[in-house]
Amino acid sequence: MASDPILDKLEAAFLKRRSGLMSTEAGQWALIVQPNDRRRKPVLVGCFDDEQQACDAGFRSTIGRRFLIKEVLETDRVFSVPYAVPADPL
Known about the structure:
This protein has 90 residues and is an alpha+beta fold. It is built from 2 helices and 3 strands, in the order H-E-E-H-E. It has one domain.
């Protein structure tokens, strides 16, 4: 699978800010936006109490732009979903 350069850039911007955010925003949800001019660095719009608030703010303030929402934690949570589990059980 090919990587997405914009998503990689947003992820790198979050990782760069993570330690600073941990001191003030631990447990919150960070919203990072890629400006329309892709040569510019991604911008941290803010941190929110829950994922839904961050998502709402992302859709309201970033029309036509890519954004990333990540929970501010020391390490990312990893979720594993078995591939053999049916999406719509009978």
